[in-house]
Amino acid sequence: MPALKPGARIAIVAPASGSPVAADEAVQWLLDRGYEPVPMPATRLRMEAPYDFLGGPDEARLDDLHDAFRAPDIGAVWCLQGGFGSWRLLAGLDGALIAANPKPFIGYSDITALHLAIQARAGFVTFHGPMLAQDLLAGKAEPTESLAFAMLTGAVGAGSWIVPPPEFAPRALAGGRATGRLVGGNLALISALMGTPYEIDTRDAILFIEDVNEHPARIDRMLAQLRAAGKLDGVKGVLLGNFTRLGLRMPDEEAQALIEPLLMANLRDLGVPVLGAWPSGHGDPNLILPLGARVTLDTAQGGLQLEQAVVR
């Protein structure tokens, strides 16, 4: 997949919820960093109730995605924000068009639906990473921005380690080292797409999961669903990202530590390395991850090593 070049044109898309004000601010943010922003039409739309959770009609949001991938002069497709509604686009997604035009696609949360669909239909690496409105305009802590651009431009390549700064160090919940394809994203979206053509493929994989606004009981239920569906069988390792706003009356930092015993109760018997409190997802910072890439998870190093170039 081509690396993001200096001064490249970057399409801003809103496949889920939208924010016309944030779209305008994202344009300036990219201009300030030397890129040429291309806000797609639906980024400035908003549906009326009861569909006011969508950034525009399904057809408009889908057309934006297809047009962004189709255009040869677009160097990356960057999601404005998550929210709700990406799954509504999957049936109409033109996998052949996207497969023929690989380029960096960046987003997370509800965008997990598109990550799973693109990997199922197009087969190239996509990036679970900071979005323009939710993270970059919000000024998430470093290395949220710098790592994203380093990976998209190829400065972080094969053999490179992704290791969070000491103040955001992850925790080894089950020690070890394992290599596999990095797959996953938002646990609720992974769960929602079970039984569809876009369900997650976890064979010989490093599974990454994170979530927000989910009570521990629902997290437990979704993990039980993955187990019952055989999606934990053959997993080589697990990377646990941010689990925030859990509906508990305590700060997120305390709740994150509290949720780990529940997560491990569902994972411990797998006998694979588990790295917890990894700063990716709905937290601060939000480190970019290359979904579909071959990586090594090493709990002693507290990080991931890229086993392949993700852009060239």
Cross-sheet strand order for the largest sheet:
6-14-13-8-9-10-11-7
CATH superfamily of the largest domain: LD-carboxypeptidase A C-terminal domain-like
- Helix/strand/pairing category: alpha/beta
Molecular shape = globular
Radius of gyration: 18 Å
Are there runs of 5+ residues with pLDDT below 50, and where?
Answer: none
Strand content: 15-25%
Largest sheet: 8 strands, mixed
Task: Work out the count of structural domains.
Answer: 2
Rounded mean pLDDT is 96
Please, could you describe this protein's structure?
- The active site is at 109 (nucleophile), 210 (charge relay system), 282 (charge relay system).
- Keywords: Carboxypeptidase, Hydrolase, Protease, Serine protease.
- InterPro entries: Carboxypeptidase_A_C_sf, Class_I_gatase-like, LdcA_N, Peptidase_S66_N, Peptidase_S66C, S66_fam.
- Residues 10-129 form the LD-carboxypeptidase N-terminal domain.
- GO terms for molecular function: carboxypeptidase activity; serine-type peptidase activity.
- The strands form 2 sheets. This protein has an 8-stranded mixed beta sheet.
- It contains 9 helices and 14 strands.
- The model has no long low-confidence stretch (mean pLDDT 96).
- The termini are close together.
- The protein has 2 domains: 9-139, Rossmann fold (3-Layer(aba) Sandwich); 160-306, 3-Layer(bba) Sandwich (Glucose Oxidase, domain 1).
- 29% of the residues lie in helices and 22% in strands.
- The chain has 312 residues and is of the alpha/beta class.
- The longest helix is centred in the last third of the chain and has 16 residues, at 252-267.
